[in-house]
Design a protein that fits this description.
CATH topology of the largest domain: OB fold (Dihydrolipoamide Acetyltransferase, E2P)
Strand order of the largest sheet: 6-5-4-7-8
Distance between the termini: 23 Å
Number of helices: 1
Strand content: 25-35%
CATH class of the largest domain: Mainly Beta
Helix content: under 10%
CATH architecture of the largest domain: Beta Barrel
Structural class: mainly beta
């Protein structure tokens, strides 16, 4: 089990995402009216305003769109890990779908273990899941 996380609030809008993550699958919402993928999850499609949706698996392949190295950390839970990285990933299925996470060298690595010189905007990444507790698996990213 790793360190360096805050338990996310799980609610009816995002529960499907976290259930899929526990299975090792990256899912995003898909509108059943217009078929557009969307992330983050929400109660209404931002494209057509329909409220019906389903969870759809995506490849988990993406590109680093941006990154930062927070230090000092903004939250006390991350003090011992500073400096660490936070990346913004565009997903291969739709570059307007972006997810925030951490780049790690290998599944289970700490979020501060990767040499920051290895992080480049435009680099290809793929998702891995880090079991931070029995019930919570966080998506992390590794270079592809």
């Amino acid at each position: 089990m790793s360190q360096g996380y805050l338990a996310p609030p799980i609610n009816e809008d995002n529960a499907g995402f976290w259930e899929a993550a526990r299975r090792g699958e990256l899912c995003v919402e898909q509108c059943t009216a217009c078929d557009k993928l969307r992330f983050p999850p929400g109660p209404m499609c931002p494209h057509c305003h329909a409220t019906e949706r389903r969870w759809s698996a995506v490849s988990g392949i993406g590109t680093i769109w941006s990154f930062v190295r927070p230090h000092p950390p903004l939250l006390p839970e991350f003090t011992d890990l500073a400096p660490y990285n936070v990346i913004l990933v565009t997903l291969a299925e739709d570059p307007t779908l972006r997810m925030i996470g951490n780049l790690v060298g290998a599944p289970g690595d700490a979020i501060n273990a990767l040499d920051p010189l290895e992080i480049e905007i435009g680099a290809g990444v793929r998702v891995v899941f880090d079991a931070v507790s029995d019930s919570l698996h966080l998506p992390r990213w590794v270079l592809s």
